[in-house]
Specification:
single chain, about 375 residues, alpha/beta, Rossmann fold, 2 domains, 7-stranded parallel beta sheet, disordered N terminus
Length: about 375
């Protein structure tokens, strides 16, 4: 609190407006080690784009592997098919990165296919790069499904107690995160680089066409609710509405990866990474509704999935695109209903412990509410949501 005393002896609180405060604690400049060359896999995704920006701004030589070039000027682009081992070898030949950040996955219809495809991506990528002899560190971004299980068995069975700790035993169910980790560990042993794993919660960030984007999804839902005369109804469970939960800002996850890649005491370690605060949706939802300018309603007795609420929303979205001159006519590239439904509909409390990171020296901290609201503003400014 900032306090001044007037000439009349009155004590006045001069604390700055919350609207003027930053979203996060200042991010240190993670100076690149000598000769460092970072490769971000999934460079245009919700995490990868934030990571590319941070690396470039910190002075790293940066390359981004993705279908489209990274939005950040100063990053080289590598176009390669992650599902084609031969194409990967050819496209990555001679690149010789020292630090690799894997922030990509390809969703499949079953967990068996998720394991086959996504573990294969890690295996083929590191086989192609490991043979070049330049790798010093590889960071793999995963998530809290490490503790909750895959979508096919999400939140079912005997789960670790919250907050989730990194040394919890793996669940007795197939999980592509486990398969990716195992490929990472095997490649590190084979090629002699250090590794880190970064288990994020629901990510708040900026991307278009991302399969798991809760901010743009809720922005689109609010616009559709307003256009159809319905309230902005919380679609999830009573547990998620009333309980505490944490989330992960994409910038926080990016900084965490660069920190681990440049901090010796973080080598060969798996970490949780969340914002550092906790929120309740019953408090956050009205704030979000107010920011979006829509009336809101709390949850029903049972979840009311967005996929059911907006099943016929494409026609409504087409009208909104015309009325507001929106930049993305394809609603499926703005809203990922299925993923937001899975997050908000969980019947269990979900939050992660970050003690391991704190004791190793990571100090990043983000206000989840401010991050969420300012991302909404960014999507609006770019005419992705009304």
């Amino acid at each position: 609190m900032n306090i001044i005393v007037t000439t009349m002896g009155t004590v006045v609180d001069m604390a700055p407006s919350a609207a003027l405060l930053p979203d996060r604690a200042p991010t240190p400049v993670r100076t690149p080690p000598p000769g460092a060359h970072a490769l971000v896999v999934g460079a245009t995704g919700i995490t990868g784009s934030a990571l590319v920006q941070q690396l470039v701004e910190s002075g790293w030589r940066t390359s981004g592997l993705s279908r489209r070039p990274p939005a950040t000027a100063g990053a080289a682009h590598v176009a390669a098919d992650l599902l084609d081992a031969r194409d990967l070898r050819e496209r990555l030949a001679g690149l010789r990165p020292t630090h690799v950040f894997v922030n990509a996955w390809v969703r499949q219809d079953t967990e068996a296919r998720n394991i086959e495809v996504n573990a294969g991506i890690v295996r083929d990528l590191l086989a192609a790069l490991g043979a070049q002899g330049s790798l010093r560190h590889v960071a793999l971004a995963t998530g809290l499904k490490h503790y909750l299980g895959p979508f096919e068995a999400y939140g079912r069975g005997e789960l670790p107690d919250t907050p989730f700790l990194e040394d919890a035993e793996r669940l007795d169910t197939p999980n592509f995160y486990y398969a990716q980790e195992d490929e990472l560990f095997a490649a590190a042993a084979r090629h002699g680089f250090t590794w880190s794993v970064h288990r994020a919660h629901t990510i708040l960030g900026h991307a278009v066409g991302n399969a798991m984007n809760i901010v743009s999804t809720l922005g689109a839902y609010a616009a559709i609710a307003r256009a159809t005369g319905r309230p902005f109804t919380f679609p999830g469970s009573q547990v998620q509405w009333n309980g505490v939960v944490d989330l992960t800002d994409a910038g926080q996850l990016a900084d965490h990866q660069v920190w681990a890649a440049t901090t010796p005491q973080a080598a060969d370690t798996a970490f949780n990474v969340v914002d550092g605060d906790v929120v309740r949706w019953r408090r956050l939802w009205p704030r979000l509704a107010e920011h979006l300018g829509v009336p809101w309603a709390g949850p029903g007795e049972h979840p009311q999935p967005l996929q059911e609420q907006v099943a016929d929303a494409q026609q409504v979205w087409a009208r909104l695109v015309d009325e507001h001159d929106l930049s993305e006519p394809d609603l499926s590239r703005v809203a990922s209903w299925w993923h937001t439904d899975s997050d908000l509909g969980r019947p269990v409390e979900v939050l992660a412990d970050m003690t391991r990171s704190r004791l190793a020296g990571f100090t990043g901290y983000v206000s989840t509410e401010r991050s969420l609201l300012r991302l909404v503003d960014r999507y609006r400014a770019e005419r992705l949501v009304p």
